[in-house]
Amino acid sequence: MNKTKIIILSAVAIAVALCVSPYMYSFIHRDDWKQNTSPLPKGTISTLCKSLLLNEANPLCNGSKTIYAADFNAALRARFPLKDPMETPKSEALVTSQEVDKAIGQFKIECQDIVHESNYSYYRCFYDFRGDGFWKDVFYFYFPEQTLFSIRSSSTQDD
């Protein structure tokens, strides 16, 4: 009977360890990506805070912590709101590419050619706040309307 309990407890312990280990690995290595980039310069942070209409008391803007390009994700989505962040319907896409460029155009690194799908056309533009190619924010615009329908972000580790 003791052997059965030991075997059951061992099996449960192994199962728990197997279930928890991916989360522990992720937790331990959650900041490893920072080795591939560096914090944003104060001038870039100041520019982004003004362009994204953030208050100086905002933690991104008040100098209280180290800020990376990825930290501005929520601020971008708040500044350029979309009904559906993955794909806003054309009739509800109100933010223009000119508005985006006015706010963050100095960080644009490229716009790709127009893609023609069966029921719409679009193009996408890439913005890199750090300028190191590690973290990019990608804005998708309907063509010819030039209205924003999606914002996505990725790092070179996502490739």
Account of the protein in words:
The protein is built from 4 helices and 5 strands. Strands 1, 2, 3, 4 and 5 form a 5-stranded antiparallel sheet that branches. A hairpin with a 3-residue loop joins strand 4 and strand 5. The protein has helices at residues 2-28, 42-51, 73-79, 97-104; strands at residues 108-111, 115-116, 121-127, 135-143, 147-155. The chain has 2 domains: 1-30; 31-158, no CATH class. It is α+β, with helices and mostly antiparallel strands and 159 residues long.
Alpha-beta classification: alpha+beta
Strand content: 15-25%
* Strand/helix succession: HHHHEEEEE
Which stretches of 5+ consecutive residues score pLDDT under 50?
Answer: 25-30
Envelope shape? extended
Q: What's the total helix number?
A: 4
**How many discrete domains?**
2
* Mean pLDDT metric: 84
**Percentage of helical residues?**
25-40%
In total, the number of strands is: 5
